[in-house]
């Protein structure tokens, strides 16, 4: 509640102080940082009784880091890109409306059902079945975004954003990774630090690759950096899931489930 009030107040202050994109993005990153600090000061590290507040702290930290990551790269890019390039990048990396809500709802539902699963084998089976079911939604969406980016961008955002179509199709390469919720599997095994390490890996690798690839490929290099960093993060999570649950990769995701 405190964070929500501060978040709303921050938007009001930015608007009243002659709104600029730089000030708004700075406010978003600052809000995420405040949220991260509040998480650490409100949840104790040491577990007590039957609860696990230490794990809750790592989960809350990951949530705050994801929020910061979402806006930090855009704030950095304000200083790297020209207004035209930034407009192309910002519009090209927008998600299809309701896709983010759908994925978030799926992740929340999966977390609840995973927590109710008694054994590790039940959790891996749930992971596999849910990934197979969700792929029936995201894989067709991935195909549409990859092969018909101009039509989608024009329909959703208008003809003035058609220059962002190629960037939109490039960012669509992340969609297949969304068929599964990886962090709840690690969360159930008490691997909160591993989740945070994955979030930091994604953030640092994305920023480093942006600085390297931007001089070579302009805004497309930035998009490639985000895609590569996301794939590395997912590979990192899958590696630890396989190690913790001691199962082969086919126990988590079998291509035959997609048929």
Describe the structure.
This protein is 76% helix and 0% strand. The protein is built from ten helices and no strands. α2 (21-42) runs antiparallel to α3 (53-80). Residues 45-51 have low confidence and may be disordered. The relative contact order is 0.11. With 259 residues, the chain is an all-alpha fold. It has helices at residues 2-16, 21-42, 53-80, 83-92, 99-116, 120-147, 149-157, 165-171, 183-188, 192-245.
Short overview:
Helices cover 76% and strands 0% of the residues.
Distance between the termini: 45 Å
Instruction: Give the uncertain stretches in residue-range form.
Output: 45-51
- Principal-axes geometry comes out as globular
- Please state roughly what percent of the residues sit in beta strands, choosing from under 5%, 5-15%, 15-25%, 25-35%, 35-45% or over 45%: under 5%
Features of this protein?
10 helices; 76% helix; 259 residues; mainly alpha; 0% strand; globular
How are the SSEs ordered, and which strands pair?
Blueprint: H1 2-16, H2 21-42, H3 53-80, H4 83-92, H5 99-116, H6 120-147, H7 149-157, H8 165-171, H9 183-188, H10 192-245
Helix pairs in contact: 1-2, 2-3, 3-10, 4-8, 4-10, 5-6, 7-8
């Amino acid at each position: 509640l405190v964070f929500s009030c501060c978040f709303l107040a921050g938007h009001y202050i930015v608007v009243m102080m002659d709104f600029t994109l730089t000030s708004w993005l700075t406010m978003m990153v600052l809000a995420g940082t405040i949220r991260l600090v509040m998480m650490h000061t409100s949840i104790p590290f040491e577990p007590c009784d039957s609860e696990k507040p230490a794990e809750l702290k790592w989960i809350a930290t990951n949530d705050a880091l994801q929020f910061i990551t979402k806006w930090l790269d855009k704030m950095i890019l304000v200083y790297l890109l020209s207004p035209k390039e930034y407009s192309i990048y910002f519009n090209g990396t927008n998600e299809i409306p309701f896709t983010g809500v759908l994925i978030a709802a799926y992740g929340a539902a999966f977390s609840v059902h995973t927590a109710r699963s008694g054994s590790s084998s039940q959790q891996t089976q749930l992971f596999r079945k849910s990934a197979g079911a969700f792929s029936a939604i995201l894989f067709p969406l991935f195909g549409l975004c990859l092969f018909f980016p101009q039509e989608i961008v024009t329909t959703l955002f208008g003809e003035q954003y058609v220059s962002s179509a190629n960037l939109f199709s490039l960012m669509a390469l992340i969609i297949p990774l969304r068929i599964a919720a990886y962090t709840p599997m690690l969360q159930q095994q008490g691997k909160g630090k591993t989740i945070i390490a994955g979030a930091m890996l994604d953030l640092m690798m994305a920023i480093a690759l942006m600085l390297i690839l931007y001089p070579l490929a302009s805004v497309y290099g930035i998009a490639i950096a985000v895609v590569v960093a996301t794939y590395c993060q997912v590979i990192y999570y899958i590696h630890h899931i396989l190690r913790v649950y001691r199962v082969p990769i086919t126990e988590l995701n079998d291509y035959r489930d997609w048929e």
